[in-house]
Amino acid sequence: MDHAARSSSAPLESLTVVRISTVHPNSAMNRALLLCAAIATALSSARAQSTCADAFRDSLSANTLRVFERVASVAPVWDDYTFSRHPLLLLADSAYRGHAETPVCAAVWRAGRPLERIELSARPPFSTPLYGMIDSDSIGPRAIDGAADIAVVARKAPSAVAAALRSRGIARVVVFNVPMNLAALGRLGEMLIAAKADPARIQADLAVHESFHLHSQFPTWLDQTRTYAWPAWDLQPDRTELRQRCYAGSPELSEALKAEIQTLVAAYDAASGDSSKRDAAAGLRHAQQFIESRAARRKLQDTMTVAQGRRRISCAQAEDLMELEEGATQWIGHATSLAAGLTNSATLRGPYAGTQAEAFYQTGPLQLWVLDGLLGRDALRRITTAIAPSTAPETGSVHAQFTNHVRRLAQRRGRSDAAATRRSDPWREHH
Ligand SMILES: [Zn+2]
Dihedral sign, CA of 406, 407, 410, 411? Predict the structure, then answer.
């Protein structure tokens, strides 16, 4: 509020002095006034320019920047996706204003570097109340059907903003208001405040998550130059149909889904949760039960289909797609935040074990956490490196990988148990 008052009063002060000085140009008093005017003009222009220089210096912003650095310092958790390679565009609160023609104080954030402050001629549109995305690369001829409907394409940033960023070598960037004001977010903000959520940690998790969408998935969908591999088979199904049919098409289906998630959460608790309670054998058992209960739920889905562009696909395929597209992305954000010490497994467990209409936000990350717990981070990283360039859901979906590795692990364990039994069998020793 202090900044708003300063920026509006400074130009008024100088205007008054200049007007007086031009009325009496010859007297000694007026020479003094002219001098005052010159000083006042210099001061006010320095102040007007300094409004953007003042942005992002408050303690909440400083904390947000520190938290961004923390997630940027985490080694890749998914294939070679490296969050620290990508810039962020930060927009200051509207209280910070430059000149009339440059109303938005902004800054480019890059890991390990000082903020690069810029003044933008307009505020770029947001995709949701929490963030925006700018993608000014052109769309290639082999873009997916419906590419024009993707928010980042449909609601382009003003061309002057895109140009200002391009002149700094930035074509794609995730955008945040910093600091994030939860009170301005309506009901979502109220829920976050009630949950005592830390805006900086939410933004750090989102920065990793949304940058992954923007830099890993969008270039594949929009046929743009890419840094990372992403499966070409990933084409988003109709999410409303997926929610309503596949997850909740009948009371039996809803119940079966609930039970399935409970089994998966049990596997998470045993394989990946609090280290004092870890039990790999129990984790593997629950993981096998989860595979069985999912197969049983698939039978209930029977002939249900979900729209994917102009064709219709099975519920199984639609769920696989979303477990990869959103579930894996959710896990990447969470695993990075956990490694950065910004969250813990008990905090993550809350929404995983709860009820979300889009259950792939639970089942996707949970399966990856269970594999992480059972196989270790290096093995999981190799799995993600197999998923990223995969050519079909049969090999590249999270659930296909989960099933494959859990079965192999169970077989290995079965063989070593049998060997242990043989070794301890007194009859074998004596004959
Ligand atoms: Zn997402």
Answer: negative
Q: How far is the CA of 3 from the centre of ligand 1 (A)?
A: 35
- d(CA 199, CA 184) in angstroms, rounded, equals 12
Tell me the CA–centroid distance for residue 35 and ligand 1, in Å. Answer: 58
CA of 372 to the centre of ligand 1 (A): 21
Please confirm whether the linkage preceding 251 is cis (ω < 30° from 0).
no
How many angstroms is it from 347 CA to the middle of ligand 1?
Answer: 19
Helix, strand, coil % over all residues of the chain, rounded to 5: 60, 10, 30
| HEC readout, 184-224 | HHHHHHHHHHHCCCCHHHHHHHHHHHHHHHHHHHHHHHCCC
Give 279-309 pLDDT, tens digit per residue. 999 999 999 999 999 999 999 998 999 999 8
pLDDT in tens, 148-199: 788 788 888 999 999 999 999 999 999 999 999 888 888 989 999 998 899 9
Is residue 270 exposed (0-12), middle (13-18) or buried (19+ Cβ within 10 Å)? Answer: buried
Question: What is the distance of C-alpha 186 from the center of its chain?
Answer: 21
Annotated domain spans of the chain = 2-51, 59-221, 239-418
CA of 206 to the centre of ligand 1 (A): 8
Q: Is 342 in a helix, a strand, or coil? A: coil
Distance 47 CA to ligand 1 centre (A): 40
Longest dimension (CA), the chain: 124
